């Protein structure tokens, strides 16, 4: 069973930065695509970014140019570097993974495993 533990959230001022981390265990990390989702109060869970295990990435339009997803396969860790944060980025952020070897897109139901979530609050 794949286990994901995400961390790094906190309170930050608008225009500030945070870096989220997610450590994966229970699978061959180099074969595991890793995504980030977020969910604001009263809203649907929203795709943020994905790092496909084949070496490519994709971002939601709302974060493109501000957020960067990266991975360190030696540490079984995926990161989300968030710059130029806006109040509308406030949400619980979750890392997620599909079954090994799969190439998920933007739907939450394409991901089989989820971290516990880490809160990001951006003040104006």
Topology readout:
Elements: E1 3-7, E2 10-13, E3 18-25, E4 34-39, E5 46-51, E6 57-59, E7 67-72, E8 77-82, E9 91-97, E10 113-114, E11 118-123
Parallel strand pairs: 2-11
Antiparallel strand pairs: 1-3, 3-8, 4-5, 4-9, 5-6, 7-8, 9-10, 9-11
- Rg of Cα set: 13 Å
Residue windows where pLDDT falls under 50 for at least 5 positions: none
Structural class: mainly beta
* Total DSSP helices: 0
Distance between the termini: 40 Å
Q: How much is the average pLDDT?
A: 97
Care to count the β-strands? 11
Q: Outline, from the CA principal axes?
A: globular
DSSP helix fraction: under 10%
What string gives the helices and strands in order? EEEEEEEEEEE
Major sheet: 7 strands, mixed
Strand content: over 45%
Give an account of the 3D structure.
The chain has 124 residues and is an all-beta fold. The chain is built from no helices and eleven strands. Strands 2, 4, 5, 6, 9, 10 and 11 form a seven-stranded mixed beta sheet that branches. The protein is globular, with a radius of gyration of 13 Å. The model has no long low-confidence stretch (mean pLDDT 97).
Index terms:
7-stranded mixed beta sheet, 124 residues, mainly beta
In short:
Helices cover 0% and strands 48% of the residues.
